[in-house]
Amino acid sequence: MNLSEYKGIFVFAEQRDRKVQKVALELIGKGKELAKDLQTTVTAVLLGKDMLDEAKKLNYAGADKVIYIDDDALDVYMTEPYVHALHTVVMDKKPEIVLFGASAIGRDLAPRVSARVHTGLTADCTSLDIAQDDDDKEKLNLMMTRPAFGGNIMATIACPNFRPQMATVRPGVMKEAEYTENNKVNIEEYKVNMPAGCKNVEILDTIKIIQEKMNIEDANVLVSGGRGMRGPENYPILEELADLLGGTISASRAAVDAGWVPKDRQVGQTGKTVRPNLYIACGISGAIQHLAGMEESDYIIAINKDEYAPIFEVADVGIVGDIFKVVPALIEELKKEGR
Ligand code: FAD
To answer: Which of 270, 311, 319, 327 to mutate to test ligand 1, by most ligand atoms within 8 A of the CB atom?
Structure first.
């Protein structure tokens, strides 16, 4: 394999219901940083139907170029047509890096594409960097870092002998670049022949779960409860606090495993990565797997009766006390302020 033939960074621009997903914009943001080190460009690859207008947003979010493949078979995600289309474009354009969101779609698509292209894939990365190769100082490799051994260590993985280097990155981890409509629109409409046997699954119906609460990844304020909440009957005080602050509730895995809070509210290594302006941890000890999902929050307040709880090590403000006294007192104060 002639590695020097492979140039540029590709970002798979995930879409659902013909809307580009936030994770794609985050990956473009990270891609731009990596592209600076590699002195190359970022190309977003969008697969869909009637999405030319939406494709422009990828340029506005910082992509130097967009490759857009329009096809009926790509309207709604299906494994085989997506793998075929992406494999075709990767083999043709030969990027040196391809990034995917570690969403349900990215986790299905990325390993299949990497197997067909015959390269490696590092899943669930939390950080990406560029470093010089140990043996060949001319060569620059992507350093892909992810939690390993149950989150107790961070492993940095490289793919020095094959290209492209592929990674999935968890939503919410990377920062979007500045979004501006002043960016040049540069879209290549790319045609892929879909073989007849490619569409081997037919989607008859899609049933959506109606979310009454805000998605925790989108919330600016999260009030998060752990095992210290003792039971689901005590969550209304967290909901009340969250409402007063214009946020929503989330939870540790202990609270989710106990069945007190639905799984989509879980923060952490096996839950979601969040980056709110304010994260209030109530009765959460601060296990490494929990911190992995929230330590990038702008401001962290921890309430715990154990002054040695590890959550205090990442907290901007730590309150040593009983949640059932502190939270009602906070609610009272906020109400006095007329919130
Ligand atoms: P605990 O550790 O039991 O802490 C409860 C805290 O509440 C204690 O610090 C206690 O002092 C405090 N408390 C009790 N009563 C009160 C009170 N009245 N007032 C104030 N404080 C009080 N965990 C996650 O959260 N997210 C993940 O994604 C995740 N993924 C994992 C993946 C793997 C592979 C593994 C092995 C573990 C994972 N975990 C995850 C589990 C993690 O290791 C911890 O077990 C979990 O985070 C503990 O949840 P907790 O802090 O709510 O409970």
So the answer is: 270
Which sign, positive or negative, has the C-alpha torsion 77, 178, 147, 280?
Answer: negative
pTM of the predicted structure, to 2 decimals: 0.77
> Ligand 1 — pocket residues by CB below 6 A?
150-151, 226-228, 252-255, 266-271, 283-285, 287, 289-290, 293, 303-306, 309, 322-324
Torsion angle, alpha carbons of 226, 228, 229, 230, to 10: 120
Q: Which amino acid belongs to residue 83? A: V
* Residue 50, phi-psi category: left (phi > 0), alpha (psi -120 to 50), beta (remainder): left
Is there a contact between 155 and 146 (Cβ–Cβ < 8 Å)? yes
- The ipTM is 0.99
Q: How close is the Cα of 236 to the center of ligand 1, in Å?
A: 19
Residue whose Cα lies nearest atom 2 of ligand 1: it is 285
The 153-157 sheet, strands edge to edge: 127-132, 140-148, 153-157
Ligand 1 atom having least distance to the Cα of 323: 19
- Burial (CB count within 10 angstroms: exposed 0-12, middle 13-18, buried 19+), residue 184: exposed
CA of 199 to the centre of ligand 1 (A): 44
pLDDT, tens only, 258-316: 999 999 999 998 899 999 999 999 999 999 999 999 998 999 999 999 999 999 999 99
